Amino acid sequence: MDDSLRLTVRAVDVGYGFTKFVRELRESEPVCQHFPSMAAAAGRRALAEGLGQRRDTVTVAVDGIDYEVGPDVALAVGRFREETFHDDFAESPTYLALVRGALAYIGQPTIDLLVVGLPVSTFIARREALRARLIGSHDCGGRAVEVRDVLVLAQPHGALGAWGLTKSRFYETKRRTTMVVDCGYRTFDWIVARGFRVMDALSGAVNRGMRDALLAIAEPLSSQLGLPVRSLERLDVALRTGQPALLAGREIDLAGHVAQAHKVAEEAVASLKAAVEEAAAEIDLILLVGGSAWFFAPHLQRAFPKHRIERVQDSMSANVRGYQLYGMEIAASRQRALRAMEAA
After folding, report:
1. What is the rounded distance in angstroms from the CA atom of residue 111 to the CA atom of residue 284?
2. 3-state class (DSSP) for residue 233
3. How far apart, in whole angstroms, are the C-alpha atoms of residue 91 and residue 97?
4. Neighbours of 225 (CB within 10 A)
5. Is residue 67 left, alpha or beta, with left meaning phi > 0 and alpha meaning psi from -120 to 50?
6. By three-state DSSP, how is residue 217 classified?
7. 89-121 as b/e, with b when 16 or more CB fall inside 10 Å?
8. Measured between alpha carbons, how far is 323 from 227 in angstroms, rounded to an integer?
9. Cβ proximity of 189 and 156 under 8 Å
10. Can you give the pTM of this predicted structure?
11. What is the mean pLDDT of residues 4-12?
């Protein structure tokens, strides 16, 4: 086929904690990268570079304002940062800056199909507006990137694609009912799908993500130390490793506070169980994804002891890998149609 008919597909997943994107394809497999979902007002970058400390970030423009985004953005964020933990996040300048930052790292001048996602709780209300917002030309680090078409998916739908759009699992997934549970930073989302078709009535979300679990630890710690504990990242690392948290130069054992965090996970899983309990016997497989899957997994297993629960490999990037695979399937279909038109 003529190279001019080849379609460039890329995927970006802007989460409340991290922005994930497919930078390239290696032997048709998505190669994923990520950076924190923070955008700093640009302007202090020259100071850092003058000290020989160039940050791994890019500068992008949104509505005439320059933002710095990328892996080292935490070094650029000042004392105050924009609060992004709200349902209108996808309509904010920060969201668009994060998408444009991902496009800058991807480095393609034209993207024929960009696949992105939204939480289940905001998907129906905001998908069309987001699609319209992302189609067109974007200022990405001083160069224009043209996005010709956009597909918006519910975020857990991407993980279903990452799991099921493989030769070894495609036919099994197509004939079964799967529940995908996405343990995110702000939201705890789930979809139930018959094959690859989402059953809307059984799908949902609650705002009880890992951030809430960490805040449940941070609040009593702040009282204990007499200092505001804002570094949720340090608490997250301590929970993951089982090591004390380093706060104000002291090693703080979190053992006495972990119960509060697990209560958040219990509440999230209880909401899920109540939503799908009457249809539980029809669910053949539960897939667990998201950067906080490790924390929610034991609670989900206790709530669904008779079900097979699988952790999707590389849980943090599962959604964006699935977006890419869905997009490539759509592109292949369009290319077949173009071939037919050429042959006619």
Report:
1. 37
2. helix
3. 11
4. 13
5. beta
6. helix
7. bbebebbbbbbbbbbbbbebeebbbbbbbbbbb
8. 42
9. yes
10. 0.87
11. 83
Give the number of other Cβ atoms within 10 Å of residue 36's Cβ: 18
Query: How many CB atoms sit inside 10 A of residue 155's CB?
Result: 30
**Residue 201 C-alpha from the chain's centroid:** 23
Q: Is the pLDDT of residue 40 over 80?
A: yes
* 268 in Cβ contact with 206 (< 8 Å): yes
Q: Strand 285-289 relative to strand 177-183: parallel, antiparallel, unpaired?
A: parallel
Chain centroid, CA 275 distance in Å: 23
Task: Give the CA distances from residue 261 to residues 208, 215, 231, 294, 299, in Å, rounded to whole numbers and listed in that order.
Answer: 10, 8, 15, 13, 12
The predicted-structure confidence for 230-287, as pLDDT tens digits, reads as follows 888 899 999 989 899 999 898 999 988 899 999 999 999 999 999 999 999 999 999 9
User: What is the amino acid identity at position 156?
Assistant: P
Q: Please give the Cα distance from 55 to 45 (Å, whole number).
A: 8
Burial class (CB in 10 A: 0-12, 13-18, 19+), 283: middle
